[in-house]
Amino acid sequence: MHMSDHLKQQIKAKMQERDRLEATIQDCSARLEATGVGLQDKLVDGEGFPRGDVDVPAIRADRQQVAVLTNDHKRVTSQIEQLMHELHAEARRAPATDTAKRPRVTETHTSTALPLHTSSTAVPAVRPFALVDEVSSNSPAEEAGVAVGDQLIAFASITGQTPNTLPAVAAALQAHENREVDARVLRRGNIVNLKLTPHSWAGRGLLGCHLKPL
User: Fold this and answer.
1) Beta bridge partners of 185
2) What CATH number is given for 130-213 in this structure?
3) What are the two backbone dihedrals, phi and then psi, of residue 147, each rounded to the nearest 5 degrees?
4) Phi and psi at residue 16, to the nearest 5°
5) CA angle 136, 141, 143 (to 5 degrees)
6) How far apart are CA 182 and CA 67, in angstroms?
7) What are the C-alpha distances in Å from 173 to residues 48, 189, 203?
8) pLDDT tens digits, residue range 73-128?
9) How confident is the model at residue 1 (pLDDT cuts 50, 70, 90)?
């Protein structure tokens, strides 16, 4: 097996592992949100006793699992990035004739390597999957330059081809808390690349904007 083929297989396996992590984080986050306490609300009452209106042990278990899986997600994403660098290096070392036969590898294969510029002459076909219809003041979304009317094309590794896109975005937000993540939006016909850092703020959630599915 050629080295590049081996690297591609490794990348595919790591991406599948990351997808499984995101799905589990999504499930845990959904259970936490259903309780009304989420990841950060206190689990003790005003007198310091465990709250009686929620299942405290189950919530603590889900919170712990989200924390562990978030670290695993960061580790796997870093491994994917390293493998992508190795694949690009291998492609550069290959003879020109051999390189011409290889499938073209683009940076969009990894969640943290979206292109940092947009070509006005060769914009690839895109399929937005969500519309930003609300951005809260002083939110992480506003800080990053997200605007009402933006159409989300990509967030981390999530695109219009990803199943259950909005739940996947919610899971990715949890996985990237306090960590920069790339996003791509369609704004007035132009592709705009943004860097967001989901984090706690005065409002709800980690981003502070509302997404409407398209």
Assistant:
1) 152, 192
2) 2.30.42.10
3) -125, 150
4) -65, -40
5) 100
6) 21
7) 31, 26, 15
8) 888 888 888 887 887 777 777 654 444 444 443 333 333 333 333 333 334 456 89
9) low
DSSP label of 104: P
**CA proximity to 157, closest of 190, 185, 181:** 181
Tell me how far apart the alpha carbons of residues 143 and 137 are, in angstroms, rounded to a whole number.
Answer: 9
Please list the alpha-helical segments (H only) found in the chain.
3-35, 56-93, 96-101, 140-144, 165-175
Burial label, 55 (beta-carbon count in 10 A; 0-12, 13-18, 19+): middle
CATH 2.30.42.10 positions along the chain are: 130-213
Reduced to 3 states, what is the DSSP secondary structure of residue 133?
Answer: strand
What are the tokens at 191?
């592709």
Predicted pLDDT of residue 94: 62
**pTM as predicted:** 0.47
Which residues does 139 contact at the CB level (< 8 Å), separation at least 6? 201, 203, 207, 208, 209
